[in-house]
Write a structure and sequence with these properties.
- The structure holds 2 protein chains of 2 kinds.
- Chain A is mainly alpha-helical.
- Helix content of chain A is 75%, strand content 0%.
- In chain A, helix 4 packs across helix 13 and helix 5 runs parallel beside helix 9 (173-196).
- By secondary structure, chain B is mostly helical.
- Chain B is built from 12 helices and no strands.
- Chain B has helices spanning 3-6, 8-31, 37-65, 76-85, 87-120, 124-139, 146-153, 157-180, 185-193, 198-234, 242-251, 255-283.
- In chain B, helix 2 (8-31) packs antiparallel against helix 3, helix 4 packs across helix 12 (255-283) and helix 11 runs antiparallel to helix 12.
- Classes of the chains: A mainly alpha, B mainly alpha.
- At the A-B interface, helix 1, helix 2, helix 6, helix 7 and helix 8 of A face helix 2, helix 3, helix 6, helix 7 and helix 8 of B.
């Protein structure tokens, strides 16, 4: 969609520098504006506390003092971006990788739950889609429920799954990945049903004239035709699966994972820790969807819109 | 009815017989394809309803027959009892979560997203800067912002509404921009030849054309908003709210009420979606996907 907007307004044959500016200039500008607003907001939000605690007994303080102190608070209402960056960096390098104080350790826990859930959810979703495409009964009885369940806040069920599986003695990775799987499952099924049905009568009849068997028609026509529908769903699914894994770490007070990190941060009022966990979660989300996009480019060459 | 008294010897064949009956009846109804209006509706709506009813029946029978612990999976009858018994509590949760957090957050977030879309529609520069950010926001677990919002805006619904605003803003922005770009050159030129200015063109042509996109975003956002509000309540809330109810009662192993709260959340989500779909069909009656025949 962004490409469409850009293509529509791109001038003809710009120079290299102009082309780079066309491409990155707006993003850099917007990011710079966001950063400036952030620093301003940090001063504004942290000022009351700073004035009350430090500056009230230092007469004659100026704007420079206020800025310096609001951007370096221990537990700020809104940490300045460089504080987050510093905390992020120190939580990556100051401790060994297997220590619970290292952010990478938590990222690994959450990422493995997400990936396991993503694989389970996608496989199950794909199997169900194949069944629905081939059975009119399932299509008419089950598929409406699959669609309807997308309007339901499925994440609400997360605490139950954790508690149920916990009472069965299952803790750790598996319950969280069940939640991830559950969230990946629906988009994959819906998109794959659409995709497997996308070949027209013409294509199907062509294969029929080639005397192709049903499995051949399935693998050589329906599956390749469904890939452009499948990958956007996988991207949505893995992003939703990450949210599921993070939320799955909340209700039981898990010891490890980005969700646990968010929760402990909010218990102890450690805002900088929350923000760096958020940054890490965002990077993880980007990496996961990026990996799916990469797989899409590999598996569907020449299908670029 | 206690199925244990009937004995296992009768139970298994009985259940299998019932299963065969269920499969047969669903298949029969699914194959039903009369070319009348009633027959079509029967096949289309009757089949999923029948299927759902069978699932509920088997759920009930199996949980009773095999004495499935309540913690694991309560029978539908138990959930219905909890729903009836906890009606007052759940109504309070509904008001707190849906009427306050979700609706207010949804209106604010979508309103802001739409207004921003209309405003930056005139600036290609800002669009190219903001759209990658919006794409980024769709891959990022935005709901993680909840603990910070709870710190800023307190335990009450304000913090949940803030999370909902953040989650719903970007989908609405992206869809509004795509919708506003949808009006073709022919139509715009026609408006120009009528002497219509920017605002007249906006209100008479471009916003109506953008409506299918806007409703699409609204429907996506209604689900996102329910999720955001419920998950934000896991981080701290007053003693009401569906998310609060689910997490505290799950910790107390009171699974009947937990499932009842989930039923309420599911119904609220579907209702919100259904209402939006109904308004959409009214507002975009001219669109090919709505028009029939």
């Amino acid at each position: 969609m962004a490409d469409v907007l850009m293509a529509r307004r791109a001038p003809t044959e710009p120079s290299f520098a102009a082309a780079q500016w066309q491409r990155f200039g707006p993003i850099v500008t917007v990011l710079a504006i966001v950063l400036m607003l952030w620093y301003a907001a940090a001063v504004w939000l942290n000022a009351p506390q700073v004035i009350e605690r430090v500056l009230s007994n230092q007469p004659g303080w100026g704007a420079a003092d206020l800025m310096r102190l609001t951007w370096a608070m221990e537990r700020p209402v809104l940490p300045a971006p460089h504080q987050i960056a510093l905390d992020f960096y120190s939580s990556l390098v100051d401790w060994p990788v297997d220590s619970p104080r290292n952010l990478l350790f938590h990222t690994y826990v959450t990422a493995s739950a997400t990936l396991l859930g993503f694989v389970m959810g996608s496989v199950l979703g794909a199997l169900l889609a194949v069944a629905i495409v081939h059975s009119r009964s399932l299509d008419r009885s089950l598929f409406p429920w699959v669609i309807a369940s997308q309007t339901v806040p499925v994440l609400a069920i997360a605490p139950i799954i954790i508690v149920i599986l916990g009472s069965m003695g299952l803790t750790g990775l598996f319950p969280k990945s069940i939640i991830s799987a559950y969230l990946c499952f629906f988009p994959v099924t819906v998109a794959l049903v659409k995709g497997l049905r996308s070949p027209g009568v013409l294509e199907l009849e062509l294969l029929h004239t080639y005397a192709a068997s049903a499995p051949q028609a399935f693998w050589k026509l329906r599956v390749p035709a469904s890939l452009p529908f499948l990958f956007p769903a996988l991207r949505v699914g893995i992003a939703a699966g990450l949210v599921g894994a993070i939320v799955g770490e909340l209700p039981t007070g898990a010891q490890a994972g980005l969700g646990a990190r968010l929760l402990t941060g909010s218990y102890y009022g450690n805002t900088v820790q929350i923000w760096s966990a958020l940054v890490m979660a965002s990077l993880l989300g980007l990496a996961l969807t990026g990996a799916v996009a990469l797989a899409e480019r590999w598996l569907t060459p020449g299908m670029k819109k | 009815m206690n199925l244990n008294e009937i004995g296992l010897a009768w139970l298994v064949p009985g259940l299998l017989l019932l299963l065969a009956l269920a499969v047969w009846s669903v298949r029969r109804l699914a194959a039903f394809d009369a070319h009348s209006l009633v027959g079509d509706a029967l096949g289309k709506y009757g089949t999923p309803l029948l299927f759902g009813a069978w699932v509920l029946l088997f759920w009930q029978l199996l949980t009773q027959a095999f004495d499935v612990p309540r913690v694991l999976l309560p029978a539908p009858s138990l959930i219905a009892q909890s729903l009836a018994a906890g009606w007052g509590v759940l109504a309070g949760d509904f008001v707190q979560t849906v009427l306050h957090s979700v609706l207010i957050g949804l209106v604010l977030g979508c309103g802001l997203g739409f207004a921003t879309g209309v405003l930056i529609d005139r600036s290609p520069f800002l669009q190219r800067g903001l759209l990658p950010l919006a794409a980024l926001a769709s891959t990022v677990p935005l709901v993680g912002i909840a603990p910070i919002m709870v710190m800023w805006f307190g335990f009450d619904w304000h913090s949940k509404a803030a999370v909902v605003v953040l989650m719903t803003f970007f989908p609405m922005l992206v869809n509004t921009l795509a919708g506003l770009a949808e009006a073709g050159h022919m139509e715009r030129d026609l408006m120009r030849s009528y002497g219509a200015g920017y605002w007249r063109t906006l209100f008479s042509l471009r916003i109506p054309v953008a409506l299918p996109f806007v409703f699409n975003a609204l429907k996506i956002n209604s689900t996102l908003a329910m999720i955001g509000a419920i998950v934000a309540e896991f981080f701290g809330s007053p003693t009401a709210g569906l998310g609060f109810r689910i997490s505290t009662e799950a910790a107390r192993m009171n699974m009947g009420l937990v499932w009842a709260a989930i039923v309420v959340a599911a119904l609220a989500g579907s209702l919100l979606y259904g209402v939006l779909g109904w308004v959409e069909r009214r507002a975009t009656f001219w669109h090919p996907s709505v028009r029939r025949g």
